């Protein structure tokens, strides 16, 4: 005859046994033993790449759900609110590769579709001599999404990027109207400390020319695909312009100047770079 305490103990033991993870999983035509885990593995997702769609909501959704191009998330021009929270459209599971970055480079890695999450934001992009603004509702949702994914995948601030950063010259999105500083102030993405920028600038005018090879070397250390040849050719100018569009959107002509050098010096001091 079981005592009440023995019955309770038996039930608890049975419950613990049924909750133990399976060590052999039946997959139909074969079984997989998952009882041991290799140490030699790494996180697939290392970067986030932000884009504007250059289309309206309906066309953005149509294009991004066809076969040619895709993104993990789409931020509508006016995000819906459900249960008091804004809604991002997830079009591709995070575990799958989306086709958003194309030919791309950052910190020595190429083909960033393999290692990134893509976020498309409905925005018209360039218009005449100006750029379409992003709404507060969009940016608030982008910030919420970035806080989530950067925490889950341990993505450092300097790996939250624009398409123009990873494909300079070929792409300009999300463009100079995108508020990178606001993101950094909310805790996502990189931004230099103003005091450090002023210290490195040392009173030099923003547009004062600097040694091109030296600036190229610093941008390459931070992550940009830029050759260190001492010539501000088309490829070099495109990379410098992409950097300026991100961190100094008031002037992104691609000139090698003291303002840009002070910013990259402050960023390397704060976040480091490739050796």
Automatic annotation (TrEMBL):
A GO MF label: N-acetylmuramoyl-L-alanine amidase activity
Keywords assigned by UniProt, alphabetized: Cell wall biogenesis/degradation, Hydrolase
Family classification: Belongs to the N-acetylmuramoyl-L-alanine amidase 2 family.
GO CC list: outer membrane
Keyword Aminoacyl-tRNA synthetase appears in the UniProt entry: no
EC numbers on record: 3.5.1.28
Catalysed reaction equations from the record: Hydrolyzes the link between N-acetylmuramoyl residues and L-amino acid residues in certain cell-wall glycopeptides
Listed GO biological process terms: cell wall organization; peptidoglycan catabolic process; peptidoglycan turnover
Record's protein name: N-acetylmuramoyl-L-alanine amidase
CDD domains with a match to the protein in the record: PGRP
Domain (N-acetylmuramoyl-L-alanine amidase) ranges: 33-175
Class of this enzyme: hydrolase
Species per Swiss-Prot/TrEMBL record: Enterobacillus tribolii
Gene3D superfamilies found in the cross-reference section: Peptidoglycan recognition protein-like (3.40.80.10), PGBD-like superfamily/PGBD (1.10.101.10)
């Amino acid at each position: 005859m079981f005592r009440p305490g023995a019955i309770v103990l038996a039930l608890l033991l049975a419950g613990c046994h049924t909750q133990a993870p399976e060590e052999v999983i039946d997959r139909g035509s074969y079984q997989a033993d998952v009882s041991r885990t290799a140490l030699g593995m790494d996180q697939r997702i290392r970067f986030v790449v932000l884009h504007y769609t250059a289309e309206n909501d309906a066309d953005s959704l149509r294009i991004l759900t066809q076969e040619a191009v895709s993104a993990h998330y789409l931020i509508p021009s006016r995000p819906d609110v459900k249960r008091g929270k804004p809604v991002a459209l997830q079009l591709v599971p995070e575990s799958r590769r989306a086709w958003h970055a194309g030919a791309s480079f950052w910190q020595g890695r190429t083909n960033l579709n393999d290692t990134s999450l893509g976020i498309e934001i409905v925005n018209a992009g360039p218009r005449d001599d100006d750029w379409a603004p992003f709404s507060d509702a969009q940016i608030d949702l982008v910030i919420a999404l970035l806080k989530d994914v950067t925490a889950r995948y341990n993505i450092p601030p300097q790996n939250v990027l624009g398409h123009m950063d990873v494909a300079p010259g070929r792409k300009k999105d999300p463009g100079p109207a995108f508020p990178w500083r606001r993101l950094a102030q909310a805790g996502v993405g990189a931004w230099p400390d103003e005091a450090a920028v002023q210290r490195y600038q040392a009173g030099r005018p923003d547009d004062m020319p600097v040694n091109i090879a030296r600036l190229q070397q610093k941008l390459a250390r931070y992550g940009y695909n830029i050759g260190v040849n001492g010539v501000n050719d088309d490829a070099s100018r495109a990379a410098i312009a992409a950097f300026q569009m991100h961190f100094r959107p008031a002037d992104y002509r691609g000139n090698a100047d003291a303002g840009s050098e002070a910013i990259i010096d402050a960023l390397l001091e704060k976040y480091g770079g490739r050796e």
